[in-house]
Design goal:
- By secondary structure, the chain is an alpha/beta fold.
- The protein folds into two domains: 5-245, Dihydropteroate synthase-like (TIM Barrel), CATH 3.20.20; 253-343, 2-Layer Sandwich (Sulfite Reductase Hemoprotein, domain 1), CATH 3.30.413.10.
- The protein has helices spanning 31-43, 56-65, 81-89, 104-117, 132-138, 141-158, 173-184, 201-217, 232-245, 267-278, 293-297, 331-343, and strands at residues 5-7, 10-12, 19-23, 48-52, 73-76, 94-97, 121-126, 164-169, 191-193, 223-224, 253-256, 286-290, 305-309, 313-318, 321-327.
- A hairpin with a 2-residue loop joins strand 14 (313-318) and strand 15 (321-327).
- Helix 2 packs parallel to helix 3, helix 7 runs parallel beside helix 8 (201-217) and helix 8 runs parallel beside helix 9.
- It starts with a strand and ends with a helix.
């Protein structure tokens, strides 16, 4: 089990639930637009949000951004240690840095400031910018990534700073899995998981699901970001679905069958409509949409509520038991009513 790290009002590691992260994708200098994105992310049940801080003026915006959200705000810093310090002075709940981009003196100043403000530091290394010194030394990219990250950990520990979160990412899924396994076997700091530069939603969700999912199934990972070339809310929804698939999440588990010749309804229409209705519900229930009663009663006997198609009729069932049969034309609206009853929606 990893150490715990407190990020604002969220604690990761130590057996706490896996926290979902995303990152705003517009300049924070546009505070009104950023505030709207923060609102959308919080409504989607994002736990932690990261913002890019490319200059001092952006760092100064953090204090105002924090008035718009209760989510912890993480400052993403590249190269300039002064941006990290200014971000913490303006209320950042965590900072993300790559110590390889800072001198020893500048790293010490960052650690001293973080200690003073009680701010944890995420140490991040990336497959696309692996430290050349380590790459030349080890000759193997995976080893270079592992050793460079652990070297930076030791540098922080020499500064008596231990409030650390680790992150090692690659656009290569197998590389991401291998390096995180290696890091997890050699230290006990919380680990942030993700497959970087994963691409648009369809490809990116698959790559992240394989990479993050394999590691979480191994018991590795304390917070996740499903990086996508898409709206940040889509990252959160994908992460929630991934965690639910592993039995680690919260919210509705939705299942629907792949359709076969027994199907008696327009299954794609029904599945799409019900999924859209339940996808953002924060309730620990399982909802099923099946093409026929054979699958409904049998394969989804563990569903809290389900529907299965027939000849002009749709059967509603709970835990494999049919409790109501309705005309197909009324099925969706009546099923939504049953969902509301199940979750206690007024």
């Amino acid at each position: 089990m990893t150490k715990t790290v407190k990020i604002g009002n969220v604690t990761i590691g130590g057996g706490n639930p896996v926290a979902i992260q995303s990152m705003t994708n517009i300049p924070v200098l546009d505070t009104d637009a950023t505030a709207e994105q923060l609102k959308q992310l919080q409504l989607a049940d994002c736990d932690i949000v990261r913002v890019a801080v490319p200059d001092i003026e952006s760092a100064k915006c953090i204090s105002r951004l924090k008035t718009f959200t209760s989510m912890p705000v993480v400052a993403d810093i590249h190269y300039d240690y002064r941006l990290a310090i200014k971000s913490m002075e303006n209320g950042a709940d965590k900072i993300r840095i790559n110590p390889g981009n800072m001198s020893a003196d500048h790293l010490k100043k960052v650690a001293d400031c973080a200690r003073h403000h009680g701010v944890p530091v995420r140490i991040g290394v990336n497959g696309g910018s692996v430290n050349r010194e380590f790459l030349n030394k080890y000759g193997d990219k995976r080893t270079a990534l592992t050793e460079s990250l652990l070297h930076y950990v030791s540098e922080m520990e020499k500064l008596a700073f231990y409030d650390i979160v680790l992150s090692v990412k690659s656009s290569d899924v197998r590389e991401t899995i291998a390096v995180n396994r290696a890091v997890a076997s050699r230290c006990d700091y919380p680990i942030h998981l993700g497959v970087t530069e994963a691409g648009p939603a369809y490809q990116g969700i698959i790559k992240n699901s394989v990479g993050i999912g394999a590691l979480l199934a191994d018991g590795i990972g304390d917070t996740v970001r499903v990086s996508l070339t898409a709206h940040p809310v889509e990252e959160v929804r994908a992460a929630r679905t991934l965690l639910n698939a592993l039995g680690m999440g919260r919210g509705v588990t939705f299942v629907s069958c792949p359709k076969c010749g027994r199907c008696g309804i327009d299954l794609e229409k029904y599945a799409r409509a019900v999924y859209e209705y339940v996808k953002d519900i924060d309730a620990d229930v399982k909802i099923a949409v099946m093409g026929c009663e054979v699958n409904g009663i049998g394969e989804c006997s563990d569903a809290d509520l389900g529907m299965a198609g027939g000849k002009g009729k749709v059967a509603f069932f709970k835990h494999g038991k049919v409790f109501r049969t309705v005309d197909e034309a009324q099925a969706l609206q009546l099923f939504f009513f049953e969902i509301d009853n199940l979750i206690g929606k007024e």
